[in-house]
Design brief:
heterodimer, A: 159 residues, mainly alpha, 53% helix, 4% strand, B: 185 residues, Rna Polymerase Sigma Factor, Chain: A
């Protein structure tokens, strides 16, 4: 006959506020017993009885940790993200802040260049599309007939 | 909180490697046999059924071990399997014997009274009978919280119920047990 001696009540003794007097008195004793040596025997027999699973050898092992880079990678990505956000904010501030950081104010080379008529003629005015200028003037109500210049008729013909 | 609710990261890591999975699972069996047995036994109330269900729990876990990738806690995963096995067993028993939930409750109380595997603690025995009168889910919550001293978060992960609902369920269970003791005196 099996001898039941192993008492398996939990060891916890700290009671909670939510427990009533009865539960505090019983102190988590469940009174359940098991045959002597049951758990050790169970663990041994159970481990032996586990069916073979050759397919587990195909189970992909998790990727090995990639050292220091693997550990710091999330932080580096986060730092890069914040740096990117900072750069964007800086750029917007530069573009939108009135009277600040305009090229002419802050860049003496640019200021000197724009003060030079040759530079304006060669590098700025040449890039202006004269058709666009005339287009805009016409939209603004400009009347080509008021011009004395003969070129204006050429412009009208070209339209 | 019970120690077995904390996973050993090295053991979990070994469960994920083909070369070490079998040996690691042997350690899992040794580690979790007692808490899982106790949990099952408090629901089915007899040793032989608890022993069978514990075996089934580990067999099921072993046959699905490749699905355990460490996303959930090992303890939570094993408890979930054990709880499902237990509830399925109780339902099968009801169908096999053609009895209702209430009849099963009475049968459980009879089983507790006839249980040879108890240590003669009258008050503890009476509490087991009081717990047997609770609805199944409430019984599970009470057992995990009271006997196993589990955190509500852990019970919530196992049973898939909100912490608030679990607290309410435990509170109700305590009230019912109190009532059982007062009427049974």
């Amino acid at each position: 006959m099996v001898k039941y001696v192993k008492r398996i009540s939990p060891k916890h003794t700290v009671m909670k506020k939510e427990d009533n007097e009865i539960l505090r008195t019983i102190a988590r004793r469940d009174g359940i017993t098991v045959p002597e040596g049951y758990f050790a025997d169970f663990a041994r027999h159970m481990a032996d009885a586990l069916p073979e699973r050759p397919e587990l050898s195909q189970m992909s092992a998790p990727a090995p940790p990639s050292g220091i880079w693997g550990k710091i990678r999330p932080y580096v990505y986060m730092a890069a993200m914040f740096a990117g956000v900072w750069c964007m904010l800086k750029m917007f501030t530069t573009v939108t802040a009135p009277g600040e950081l305009t090229p002419m104010d802050k860049n003496p080379v640019m200021a000197e260049a724009f003060g030079n008529d040759d530079f304006i003629d060669n590098y700025v005015l040449d890039d202006v599309n004269q058709w666009d200028v005339m287009d805009q003037m016409m939209e603004d109500g400009f009347d080509p007939g008021t011009l004395d210049e003969p070129d204006s008729t050429d412009f009208e013909a070209a339209l | 909180m019970a120690d077995y609710m904390h996973d050993d990261p090295k053991l979990v890591e070994r469960l994920r490697h083909p070369a070490t999975v079998r040996a690691a699972f042997g350690e899992v069996i040794a580690l979790y046999s007692e808490p899982l047995y106790r949990q099952i036994r408090r629901m089915v109330q007899n040793h032989d059924d608890a022993n069978d269900l514990l075996q089934n729990t580990f067999l099921k876990a072993w046959s699905n071990i490749e699905n355990f990738r460490g996303d959930a806690r090992l303890s939570t995963w094993l408890y979930k399997i054990a709880v499902n096995e237990t509830l399925s067993h109780l339902e099968r028993e009801r169908k096999r014997r053609g009895i209702s939930l209430d009849d099963q409750e009475a049968a459980l109380i009879n089983t507790i009274e006839a249980d040879a595997d108890i240590d003669g603690d009258a008050l503890a025995l009476k509490l087991r009978k009081a717990i047997a009168t609770l609805p199944e889910k409430q019984r599970l919550v009470f057992n995990m919280r009271y006997y196993d001293d589990m955190r509500y978060d852990d019970i919530s992960a196992i049973l898939g119920t909100s912490v608030g609902a679990l607290k309410a369920s435990y509170h109700l269970a305590v009230k019912k047990i109190e009532q059982f003791f007062s009427t049974d005196d």
